[in-house]
Design a protein that fits this description.
This protein has 261 residues and is mainly α. The protein has eight helices and no strands. The protein has one domain.
Length: 261
């Protein structure tokens, strides 16, 4: 599919451009774009891999995903810096102490990322074209529908009470669903399903904001500080609890809507 090939080419170009930036500097926006781009590529090749199991998509994407995981540690600290800047009631010295420790963490984790990224000539990232995989348009479209249905079914499954890890898994499924839809967004007759997106967008945002706070708490607790202000941790946990409660409501609405369609 020419439209899907163009999407892949543009996406890979942008990922390599941002990778070229972040091997030199821990630019916050470039790191975010790089990680989103890798997730979009992963969603695309995961879907293609279901259509052609011998593709071995995981091994082909291993360099990109390993670098994304490594730089995610820096991204987590960027998020923590943003969130603690918004916490009210912190003494100035407490905030500065946490910010100083977080910036030291960025430097340490960024050096580790650089060592990984510059090792063994991993840059630029290379991935096979869709044409070279020998997949027909009919096969791709059939598996697109199967993959989307599978994702949506797993997202809306409410047969168990979700723990923290399972909520995190739902968040990942939402992203894969969204990225797979986006991959076909410019293909004739394959536009994004706006009704689906309206239903999932708020749930995706709530779980993203919830996850940011969970990661922020874990990051702060991992700092080498004599004392982490209890009020900061309590406030972040309280916000996370509220967002997760709202996510439960939206998941229920999405499940009911899905059952009717």
């Amino acid at each position: 599919m020419k439209c899907l090939e163009q999407y892949r080419s543009r996406l890979l170009t942008n990922v390599n451009r941002d990778l070229g930036v972040i091997v030199q500097t821990a630019d916050e926006e470039a790191i975010h774009r790089f990680r989103v781009g890798v997730k979009r590529l992963t969603a695309l090749y995961r879907m293609l891999g279901m259509a052609k199991p011998e593709l071995r998509w995981k091994s082909r994407l291993r360099p990109a995903r390993s670098m994304s995981r490594a730089i995610s540690r820096v991204r987590d600290v960027h998020i923590a810096l943003e969130l603690i800047a918004k916490i009210s009631g912190l003494a100035a010295d407490e905030r500065k102490s946490m910010e100083r420790a977080l910036r030291l963490r960025i430097r340490r984790d960024f050096r580790a990322f650089q060592r990984l990224a510059l090792d063994d000539n991993k840059i630029p990232l290379r991935l096979p074209t869709i044409r070279s995989l020998g997949l027909s348009e009919n096969i791709i479209l059939r598996h697109k529908s199967e993959v989307l249905a599978q994702y949506l079914g797993r997202i809306t499954n409410r047969s168990i009470r979700l723990n923290t890890m399972q909520w995190h898994d739902r968040r990942i499924l939402l992203k894969r669903y969204h990225h797979t839809l986006d991959a076909f967004g410019q293909c004739p007759g394959q536009g994004r399903i706006e009704t689906d997106l309206k239903q999932i967008t708020m749930l995706e945002k709530l779980l993203g904001d919830w996850h940011d706070r969970v990661i922020c708490v874990e990051t702060l607790q991992g700092l080498e500080l004599e004392k982490i202000p209890a009020g900061a941790i309590a406030g972040l946990n309280r916000e996370a609890h509220i967002m997760l409660g709202a996510a439960r409501i939206y998941l229920g609405e999405l499940s009911r809507w899905q059952a009717l369609n």
